[in-house]
Fold this sequence. Notes:
Elements: E1 4-8, H1 13-24, E2 28-33, E3 58-62, H2 68-78, E4 82-85, H3 92-97, H4 99-120, E5 125-131, H5 153-172, E6 175-181, E7 184-185, H6 194-206, E8 213-215, E9 221-222, E10 225-226, H7 227-239, E11 246-248, E12 254-255, H8 256-266, E13 275-277, H9 295-301, H10 309-323
Parallel strand pairs: 1-2, 1-4, 2-3, 4-5, 5-6, 6-11, 7-10, 8-13
Antiparallel strand pairs: 9-12
Helix pairs in contact: 1-7, 2-4, 4-5, 6-8, 6-10, 8-10
This protein binds NADPH dihydro-nicotinamide-adenine-dinucleotide phosphate and guanosine-5'-diphosphate-rhamnose.
Amino acid sequence: MTKVALITGITGQDGSYLAELLLEKGYLVHGFMRRTSSFNTARIDHLYQDQHEPDRRLFLHYADLTDGSRLVTLLESIRPAEVYNLAAQSHVRVSFDEPEYTGMATGLGSTRLLEAIRMIGLDCRFYQASSSEMFGATPPPQNEQTPFWPRSPYGVAKVYSHWMTRNYREAYGMFAVNGILFNHESPRRGETFVTRKITRAVAEIAAGKRSELFLGNLDSVRDWGYAPEYVAGMWAMLQHSEPADYVLATGTAYTIRDFLQFSFEHVGLDWQKYVKFDERYLRPSEVDSLIGDASKAASVLGWRPKVLTPELARIMVDADQRAL
Ligand code: NDP
Ligand code: GDR
């Protein structure tokens, strides 16, 4: 029988790659998107099928994670076998400006979804997009046993969602899992995250269209992987016989300076000539170092990342040059 999946946050980076993967696997895919005054579907336009096509396999619905009754109504009618909760206010810096909204969407949004599933008695598997930001100030390497010490309203909201997901698993026997994903990027990464901000600037600087790039803290260490490989890991978590939480990461560590180096040297430029400091991009409390240990995902799911940060930077610069 054809499997039915639901993706919240289908218009985001991960949602778009996951929709592609599930369609390739033969699923019927339903996606929740927000109503916005201008189009927000650029990442999934290539998958879009007209409503009147007879064999349509992608269905989009307006829904906001802050609107619980809408989630109940839609889940009741779609009755998916797998629910991937990827929607969130996902920007760490912005979460300091909008802590309350971040709590409502990134935190309580997951509870609304879990509670909707429980209320209608839906038998489905649930994936929660947990984050390495939950580890915050706890030193690396971080794995499933590492204590959380979130350093932003975003990280705090994700910890809440993480524990609610575990609680629904323990309290109601739900197949609910947390994927604790370290940073993963791609040419579809939002333009205000540091990797994409850098690779877009590199493309523009190489084309002579600009001469400066303003950034904040260049010393933080991140474990950057390639988004399409990470959504395959999400799917694998929901196919396993037992629900459990998994870290996905490359296990490698680079600073923002390293990412600048990889990106600028790919077009033969010296980053130090173009990068300027702007304190507006600093965070009130920073996460200094995230380096993941994904050995559980490797041994249980057979998940192993192939693209590491230097190659990732080149993929993203190439894509931004083509887009320009
Ligand atoms: P994006 O920011 O690219 O996508 C977020 C998605 O959530 C978008 O579709 C957005 O819609 C939607 N959204 C935001 N607020 C709401 C809301 N109130 N109701 C409904 N939808 C909403 O994030 P990513 O794709 O990078 O990440 C996917 C998930 O994984 C997020 O939950 C993120 O926090 C988490 N995560 C990401 C990591 C990463 O490195 N990328 C690492 C670990 C966790 P719109 O397009 O309209 O803005
Ligand atoms: P992060 O990603 O906070 O790790 O969250 P981001 O790319 O925003 O920041 C990474 C590091 O770069 C430093 N930095 C800057 N960041 C941004 N955005 N803009 C700048 O100009 C800049 N200059 C320096 C930051 O201080 C930080 O140390 C991402 C999101 O996708 C989350 O949703 C996800 O959960 C985590 O990754 C894992």
